[in-house]
Amino acid sequence: MTEEEINVSIDQLRKGELTELYIDNKDFYAFRKILVEQEDFKHFRGIAQRNGHVIYKYLEVARS
Question: What pTM was computed for the model?
């Protein structure tokens, strides 16, 4: 994934256009680097899958 694709995906998840976002293990570090820079980072929840894949969801209430 490119940086632009990551930003578009994050924005779609934030706006509710996507209910969840699947991130392949090869894209995980690039995605996470951009995700942690977001102001609403605590609203994103990553759910680990097998083989290093992650499914992200956007929460209305920030996690603690």
Answer: 0.91
